[in-house]
Amino acid sequence: MRRIIERKIRYDSTLAEYTCEVVKLTKKYAVLTYEMAETVMVGTTEADMKIPAGSRTYAYYWTDRPYNIYIWRARSGEFLGAYFNIVKNTRITDQVVSFEDLIVDLLVRPDGCSFMLDKEELPEPLGNFENGCVHRTLDHLAESYDRLLPPILSETRIMGSEESFNKKLPFTRYRAEKSSGDLTIVMYHGWGSSADVFEEKAGILSSLGYQVILPELIYHDRRANIGDHFNPQSAQRYFWKTIFRSIDEAPDLLRLLKCPPNRVVLMGSSMGGFIASGIFSSMKGLAGLIVVNGSGSFSLSESIFREKDGRNELTEGERVEFSRYNPVESPILNDAPQLLMHGDSDSIVSIKGEEDYVKITREKADNACLTFKTFPGIDHQFTEPMFHEMVYWLKNNVG
Fold first, then answer.
1. In what helix (H) or strand (E) does residue 292 lie, and over which residues does it extend?
2. Who has the most CB within 10 Å: 56, 178, 290, 358?
3. Are 345 and 378 within 8 A, CB to CB?
4. Could you give the CA distance from residue 305 to residue 318 in angstroms, rounded to a whole number?
């Protein structure tokens, strides 16, 4: 999960900065999270709220609201309390979420009781402070927090349950911002990259009504990350292990997400395209496949890699292992739509692998719903026109 800075600008202009993890980040709305390093007492003696070390904070920010919301949950997932922070000038960038703190806060206990905090620190009466806007915001929150909190509590409860099983199969979820038929797009990243590379695209897709899942891959992200991915020995040792392991994990991932396969589109770029192709050819009933600069002909692509590197050909034992995962050798024929895109000048993953997959797929099924687009002069890149083509294809080919 990508890290970001929360910057609190106190009323006396001093700063407090905290490192958080990004749950969701758009230009106008953000959700961050972090684990409490030590036990803290919150609010007044009357409020009597204790947040133990190891609890998790979920922080919500809006650029068009005069408050932020903090939710505390114990390791068990139990709701410990909520905190409305009165603010102004909230700004959200890729590196920092900042806001100007206006001293007074509203604390809400699990039993629904609320308490105003820090009124005694105001430099003038509440009704006059900041021309009365803080008073008006507090009045609004006092009347509406029982309506504002339930959807956020529901969302953080889900986030907490995801975190517990994310230790095995970590991922980032972007929930659809509007309905688009409950379609989920699972996006697999490339070799030596990370799930974060798709954050911007995932945000756009979620705004269009798609739920997006960004899985973290073995030997990458937070999962036994080998670090030196572009060392030739590391790439040769772990590239296919990453692909085969990710294909094996896919059924468990979909079960954990509770996504029916017929509402899931697999998408991958570069190595992620190999993974998506392998999953698509091993599972029946998926909604679609999108591959950018990948390959569905594993043995051929590996032979091209080896020839380029001056390595020996695949052994018979290696060919047997490849055949277990190789899409062109799979007996499963998916009639779901496929969009394959490749730069015709790709110097990393030869277009020959995808061309072979297209040829064999069409030989197996004359009516295969497969679109293969090449992009002249494009090397190993996921370009903006490719992304636009993907969005257009989704709207017109997957219901």
1. strand 288-292
2. 290
3. yes
4. 14
Domain range annotation of the chain: 3-166, 171-397
29-35 and 56-62 beta bridge pairing: antiparallel
Farthest-apart Cα atoms in the chain, separation: 82
The answer to whether residues 290 and 265 touch, using CB atoms and an 8 Å cutoff, is yes
The pLDDT value given to residue 36: 86
Adjacent-strand bridge partners of 171: 215
Looking at domain 171-397, its CATH architecture is 3-Layer(aba) Sandwich (3.40)
- Any residues with CB less than 8 A from the CB of 284 and at least 6 apart, and which? 261, 332, 334
Looking at residue 312, the DSSP 8-state letter turns out to be P
Distances (CA, A) of 229 to 168, 193, 224, 282: 22, 9, 12, 27
* Amino acid at site 179: S
Q: What is the length of the chain?
A: 399
Residue pLDDT, tens place only, 63-119: 999 999 999 999 888 999 999 999 999 999 989 999 999 999 999 999 999 999 999
Tokens 């190891």 locate to 54
Which segments in the chain show pLDDT lower than 50? 165
394, burial (CB in 10 Å: exposed 0-12, middle 13-18, buried 19+): buried
Residues paired with residue 58 on neighbouring β-strands, in sequence order:
33, 71
Homologous superfamily of the 3-166 domain (CATH)? FomD-like (2.40.380.10)
